[in-house]
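User: Can you predict the 3D structure for this chain?
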Amino acid sequence: MDPIDRRLILTGAGIAGLASTLGSELFAQTAAQGNAVTTEAAPAVAVPQAKYRIPFAVVGLDHAHIYSMTDAVIRGGGQLAAFHATDAAQIATFRKRYGEVKLARSEAEILEDKSIKLVAGAPIPDLRAPLGIRVMQAGKDYLSDKPAITTLEQLADVRRAIKATGRKFAIMYSERLEVPAAVAAGQLVDQGAIGKVVQTINIAPHRVSAPTRPAWFWDKKRYGGILTDIGSHQADQFVYFTRSTEAHVVGSQTANFTYSQHPNFEDFGDMMLSGNGGAGYVRVDWFTPDGLPTWGDGRLFLLGTGGYIELRKYVDIAGRPGGNHLFLCDRKGMRYIDCAKTFLPFGPQFVTDIVERTSLAQDQHGALLAAELVLTAQKNATRVTA
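Assistant: Here is the predicted structure, written as structure tokens:
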């Protein structure tokens, strides 16, 4: 692997040997499960390298991403102290995984509890930013599912609240933070394996699974639109891998090709991005065919000045089994790296950030820049008709 340090890929910087000793349940995304770990499996535990223990709470269980978010915080040293929800089925499912966790009678009960340092939330998307603002105003940090913000007006409110409170408004962009192959790609880029990244290309199909979707899933006002929703992951990867601190939307388009019965839904979108670190292209859709064994064939291409990387995150069609496949081509040749056991550092880093007021796990400016890009792309998108 010289000059690439494979040990760092497998462990995460400074966490040597850990990945090979942990059970697969700690790696939050899998080809079969998609974006959330199963509710039946044993929940995560704090990793040995987690420096701190902090009480945290969960508010809002409307998306299953809350399970992978909760597990990430627990791996980092978070101690689940309470949760709040009102739907009986959601409560039962959450307790099936996490046991008899305290069910708070109200959101206010959690916000008024001074011992709780962090609130993680996955309510309906248009409710996430207002929840985060209330959390920060209560003196706590906040971790939101994506999309954390559904309008530019909400974004302005979030930025004002961050400035006023000094608290963190973190966003779980799980397709980078909780995907081992994406973490490994970031480490390779840091090592200079492909030179400077000048373009990212993200292809992100998803399976719609229509019968399982709640009413809000089809309502653009609730989920924000396809670029705001799914595209937030890809905008985050563009910002992160190109190291852009400023960026704008070159062009965008959306469509509803197949769901005329849901006129406020979008099943296709793409956008071109330009930043002070590079260029980006994103395509998102709800067209994963039933023949694919997972929810989507997510692919990421990183073009560098000295080579390129391709990630097959969740499946390698007619190729290697499982997910987290990384293909690297540089000046010396071509190679394949199995990233399935790459350590996921977000949880320990994020808990450390909360205690030490650092920004190891996520840069606040970058997280909100990604949100601004998709909100702008969504607002200005050309409507495609077939």
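Residues 235 and 370 are 5 Å apart (CA to CA). Confidence is low (pLDDT under 50) at residues 6-36.
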